Task: inverse folding
């Protein structure tokens, strides 16, 4: 599989027409995301984070600016099949068991693979995610954490160059979330995939990423880009570092102080 | 253990119903022409088994063909409604209005249009079985999670792939909920067709024995009809078990009549 692309977002704006007028979801966003990196966008609810991911996945056309993968502007057809997507809800197909759910992405995006190869690959990912023995279970027979694991396996199984994750752990309990964060890092380090991760949890952003972009409330703008220096593997002890607390405080300050100002400006 | 107890209890309710029936007929010495006891109905069913069986076949054919026509056309129109705004906006008010009409009232008219025999039975059965299929299947196809469809888009799925891999299986619980309603309506339609425009079939036997005041035979035909209905309903339930996976009992889908 070819290497992950260098993603550059240039002056990206997205606005929707609603009954009450035009809503600016994203306003002049520019970001560079290095190939193979773990990039997190932190911001309050409604800052257009999800909109940004939808543009990156080619599902939504921007109203201004552009997104380049390795210098080439993406359009719907070029980006499709290159990006994996994990949502806050697992969005598994209830009529497919875990194995068949993981195979879905390969059926669509990797038509060159034989059925046997797809199944082998799907079993491989379920195995890495610790879901041995659950291949034939249907989603309603799995816990929320397991469903989300299957969803991550489904997104990774077709070996996308970019993995987009939209608050994937937000609906999970604390313990499950921490386990899955560690698992995600482990999975990511085994691939060359670029991860673009969205969260409103500051500790989650600091624990997982190499870089963070802090966004303001609607219309979403990038307030600051932060390099996260903590050595890998990061685990429980990383959260206890004094620098971790200081950095979390800084991000929290950004989000707190900019919010009322933005509200006033509107 | 609890499940077994409930099953035994459920069977007892049926037995109790027939026992009370038998007891009342016995106690009040009700004439068989008014209400025959269940034991007598069972006897008549055995005595008249050849007649009942030969007349079950045409009824079965009318129900099945009417049901199949209803399901096929209903499904095609539902796809049109779900995927085309024009089709949806133009046809929906008409369908909803037509659904409210008492379609059975048209039965004598179909005798004039289609003559005597199989055709009017099929038409009535198809006509009343059709609406639940259209409305529920369209509802199922339109209720597909849009994020799921966007997910398929991001993978580069074709329209056909989205339909076969997502929308169609998504709508299956709705479709089968509709089929269960439709099959019972198709039975009603076929019987009404046989009341007005047939020389054979269980509906015809019921009607004929009514005229000759043969209440015992009438009940025997009603029971045969009910058994046919139960068998057909169970066939749909079995098909549902086969085709609808991973959804808990009933899947929470409520069908519209």
Result:
């Amino acid at each position: 599989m070819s290497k992950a692309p260098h993603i550059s977002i240039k002056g990206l704006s997205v606005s929707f027409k609603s009954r009450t007028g035009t809503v600016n979801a994203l306003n002049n966003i520019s970001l560079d995301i290095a190939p193979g990196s773990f990039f997190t966008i932190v911001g309050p609810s409604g800052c257009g984070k999800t909109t940004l991911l939808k543009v990156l996945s080619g599902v939504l056309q921007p109203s201004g600016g552009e997104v380049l993968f390795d210098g080439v502007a993406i359009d719907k057809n070029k980006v499709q099949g290159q990006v994996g997507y994990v949502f806050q809800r697992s969005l598994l197909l209830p009529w497919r068991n875990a194995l068949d759910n993981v195979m879905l992405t390969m059926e669509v995006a990797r038509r060159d693979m034989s059925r046997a190869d797809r199944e082998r690959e799907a079993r491989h990912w379920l195995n890495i995610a610790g879901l041995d023995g659950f291949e034939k279970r249907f989603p309603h027979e799995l816990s929320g954490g397991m469903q989300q694991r299957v969803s991550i396996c489904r997104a990774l199984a077709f070996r996308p160059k970019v993995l987009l994750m939209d608050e994937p752990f937000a609906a999970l309990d604390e313990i499950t979330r921490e386990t899955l964060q560690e698992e995600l890092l482990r999975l990511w380090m085994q691939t060359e995939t670029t991860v673009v991760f969205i969260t409103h949890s500051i500790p989650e952003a600091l624990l997982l990423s190499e870089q963070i972009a802090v966004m303001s409330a609607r219309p979403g703008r990038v307030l600051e880009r932060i390099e996260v220096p903590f050595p890998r593997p990061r685990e429980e002890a990383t959260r206890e570092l004094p620098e971790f607390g200081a950095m979390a405080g800084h991000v929290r300050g950004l989000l707190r102080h900019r919010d009322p100002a933005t509200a006033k400006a509107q | 253990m609890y499940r077994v107890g409930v099953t035994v209890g459920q069977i007892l309710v049926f037995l109790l119903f027939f026992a009370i029936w038998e007891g009342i007929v016995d106690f009040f010495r009700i004439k068989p022409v008014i209400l025959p006891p269940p034991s007598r109905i069972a006897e008549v069913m055995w005595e008249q088994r050849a007649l009942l069986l030969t007349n079950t076949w045409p009824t079965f054919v009318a129900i099945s063909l009417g049901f199949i026509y209803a399901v096929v056309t209903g499904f095609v129109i539902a796809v049109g409604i779900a995927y085309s705004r024009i089709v949806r906006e133009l046809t929906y008010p008409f369908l909803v209005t037509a659904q409210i009409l008492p379609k059975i009232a048209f039965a004598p008219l179909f005798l004039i249009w289609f003559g005597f025999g199989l055709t009017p039975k099929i038409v009535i059965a198809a006509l009343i079985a059709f609406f639940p299929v259209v409305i529920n299947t369209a509802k199922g196809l339109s209720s597909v999670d849009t994020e799921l469809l966007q997910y398929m888009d991001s993978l580069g799925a074709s329209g056909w792939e989205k339909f076969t891999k997502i929308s169609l299986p998504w709508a299956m619980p709705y479709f089968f909920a509709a089929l269960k309603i439709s099959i019972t309506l198709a039975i009603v339609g076929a019987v009404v067709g046989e009341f007005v425009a047939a020389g054979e079939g269980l509906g015809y036997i019921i009607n004929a024995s009514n005229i000759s005041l043969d209440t015992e035979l009438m009940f025997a035909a009603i029971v045969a009809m009910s058994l046919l209905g139960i068998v057909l309903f169970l066939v749909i339930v079995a098909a549902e078990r086969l085709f609808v996976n991973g959804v808990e009992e009933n899947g929470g889908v409520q069908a519209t009549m």
About this structure: Chain B has two domains: 1-30, 38-252.
